Amino acid sequence: MNISSLLQGIASFAWIGFIGILVAISMRATRKQPVGGLSTAAIVLLVAAVLLTSIGAGIVFVEPDELAVVVTVLGEGGIRPEPLDSGLHWIVPFAERVERFPKTNQNYTMSSVADEGAQNGDDSIQVRTKDGQQVYIDASVIYAVDPLKVVQLYSTWRSNYEDQFVRTQARGIIRDVASQYGVEEIVSTKREEMANSITDQLVTIFAENNLILRDFVLRNIRFSDEYAAAVEQKQIAEQQAQQAKFVVEQRKQEAEQARQVAQGSADAAVIAAEGAAQARLIQAQAEAEANRLLAESLTPELIQYQYILNLAPGVQTIFIPSDQQFILPLPDTTTTP
Fold first, then answer.
1. In the chain, is it the N or the C terminus that has fewer CB atoms within a 10 Å radius of its CB?
2. pTM of the predicted structure, to 2 decimals
3. What is the pLDDT of residues 231-261, one digit of tens each?
4. Are the CB atoms for 86 and 68 separated by under 8 Å?
5. Residues 6+ positions from 90 with CB-CB distance below 8 Å
6. Comparing C-alpha atoms, which of 69, 78, 71, 227 is closest to residue 148?
């Protein structure tokens, strides 16, 4: 309770006391009894009641989170040009009064959920998109009174700025901006762009009407039941297509793996064949080199020696001519029985 309310309460008791004394004076007067003391008390209470009422009406306490506009019958235009800030102030009793405005941020929510919005029931914004679909948008507008322009705000909107301005402008701008987008753009690719466009327009229109936009929140977007069912069927089809694509990709990977295994086997066979051919070539070259070396190493004596070795051990008789250098073929000395 502030001092103004306290004085008003005391003044009320003074008025009640004054009225009570007047009743007592009337009763004593009808009985022709003296009323001198009661008259003095009535005068004192009357003076006190008038003073307390006047002082209580003239003292104004503005809360720390408030601003006050003074409405007066004394000045030109009916409003003091400067608002009252937080604290204790004096106004002309019965000739002036104050209209209070909050300094704090205010939240105006439009939602399909009954307990969330400023209005009862479904208060979401219905929008027809560019491609003809019906969507329902839940949004919140967070704003504050411009403390430097609160007098102008009162002159323009009085205390009805929330219903008559904030609600009307927010819903209209949301409809206008959202109608420029397709339903899929609103849901996914351009949702942020749409919210930024709405915010920019609200900032401008609020500033022109002595309010400050703190934030715009795009809370939720709903579709009609028919479109929601169509979207669900589309998502199911897309998931099935992705599953089929995954299966095809898996089969491709399996085929590629089999191809690589076959290619590896073929490459191994080629390498083995090439190795065998290379080994055979090396062997042939070695044999040729051995034959060459053998041919170069043959002498008549060596041939004769090898000849004799090959005759043994089956040879029984050898005829060697006395005038020949080489061993001649031996005659057949076997006899026929």
1. C
2. 0.63
3. 667 766 777 788 778 888 888 888 888 888 8
4. no
5. 58, 59, 60
6. 69
